[in-house]
Amino acid sequence: MPRSNWLKEVFHCQKPIIAMCHFGAMPGDPGFDHKGGMKKVVEWAIKDLTALQNGGVDAVMFSNEFSLPYMTKVGTVTVASMARIIGELMPHLKVPFGVNVLWDPVASLDLAAATGAKFIREIFSGVYASDFGIWNTNCGETVRHQYAIGAQNVKLLFNIVPEAAQYLVDRDIVSIAKSTVFNDRPDALCVSGLTAGVETDVQILKKVKEALPETIVFANTGVRLENLGKQLEFADGAVVGTTFKYEGKFENHVDEERVKAFMNKVKKFREE
């Protein structure tokens, strides 16, 4: 299927809003609550998923957002824990979902294959100086793994502006986007701010979309009620996390009323 055509098949709408459902710290993570255990992590995830779906989001993406500090090669325990959580969420799921094991694309593909996720978001290509050390990737190896495990229908959302990282050499974002599309055949590109919750630069979104009009481009961070119009003017959709939380704070639970207000505005934007 052409890259520009799969959005409606997966999300059943144009300009989809993919809501982040952040998992709490899990076994192996420094912040794991040993007293509350996995039961507490699952309860938190069910509460957030319920608020997101009641609020009207188009899809959700499950991620180990509180596995700080992140790893570029995660342990088996992380993937196993996330699979357990998603398994318990299955009876509650009403929208398409994706997964993101931060920041390990092979682990994300394994989790997607095991759970039936429709898409993953990851850092698939490039070499970076990051908060996690020198960050290298091997897209060819990752995609071959995707086919080896039978996950070829899982859509790959390439984050080309990694959070808390930058290319080891100075490269213009448009040239990065163009070479990524030519060499790696992504299903979509994600353009981000510096960290979770930081607004994506609209001018960068505009430049990338104008350079690659046939490629799906998502605004990946910092889309809020007050800026969603200008973000969606150029982006084909958005990944939204922090703004859906109580008081717009990263560490809080999802606020259903904030989700409803946001999605009502999105629906009006689509109508216009």
Automatic annotation (TrEMBL):
Q: Pfam families recorded for this chain?
A: BtpA
SUPFAM superfamilies assigned? Ribulose-phoshate binding barrel
| Similarity field | Belongs to the BtpA family.
Query: What is the name attached to this protein's record?
Result: SgcQ protein
Q: What is the lineage of its organism?
A: Bacteria, Pseudomonadati, Atribacterota, Atribacteria, Atribacterales
